[in-house]
Amino acid sequence: MPSMVNPTGKHRRKRRHHGEGTVILRRDHWRARTWVAVVPYLDESGRRREMWLSAASREEAERGRADRGGDGVSDWYILGPDHEPVASTVEEWSAWLGQGFPMTKRVANDNIGDTTVSTVFLGVDHNWGDGPPILFETMVFGGDHDEWQWRYHTWDEAAQGHAAVVAAVKGEGLWPDGR
After folding, report:
1. Residue 130 burial class via C-beta count within 10 angstroms: exposed 0-12, middle 13-18, buried 19 and up
2. Distance CA 32, CA 28 (A)
3. Which of 14, 85, 139, 173 is deepest in the core (most CB within 10 A)?
């Protein structure tokens, strides 16, 4: 597909969108997952956007692009009223994200000195179809353990993992994975 001319010359050349989605082999082969599935969706204002999902193989990227609609598995989830993940379409997920990031999407957040421990609902399955969806993440920001992370399947697992990480940062317990 031909590139569109960028009249300002300030930024990289614009390209046309990928229609109903496509699969691309990236040229930067240093990546562990060189294939990417481009999945179009509409944001909360109705503008067309693209989500790029990394994949290890062309087949995995094709499955991601197909939105897993036919096999009953979803990559996108929203939180139900009791913190239960609910499978959704990419359009429902996009509209839900457009509501902002209210506290109902945050499991916990603690500041310990110069370190912040944050646990949130991700909304996208980070297991990529290889078992139960991984939808929650705890990350450490700042301090000696900056950017350490752990991921979980359920809200309750995430809350327990968050508490363990907070205890470890305080020096009162072990890291969840034994680091």
Report:
1. exposed
2. 10
3. 85
Q: How confident is the model at residue 80 (pLDDT cuts 50, 70, 90)?
A: confident
Q: Is the pLDDT of residue 164 over 80?
A: yes
Q: Is residue 99 domain-shared with residue 53, that is, in the same domain? A: no
pLDDT score of 5 more than 60? no
Verify that 44 and 117 share a domain, yes or no: no
- pLDDT for the residue numbered 113: 93
Cβ-contact 133, 123 below 8 angstroms: no
Bin 63: left if φ > 0, else alpha if -120 < ψ < 50, else beta. alpha
Structural domain for 137, as ranges: 72-173
Number of domains comprising the chain: 2
Distance CA 155, CA 135 (A): 9
Q: Which of 56, 80, 38, 78 is nearest to 129 (CA)?
A: 56
pTM, two decimals, is 0.60
Cβ atoms of 24 and 35 within 8 Å: the answer is yes
Does the CA dihedral 79-80-85-86 come out positive or negative?
A: negative
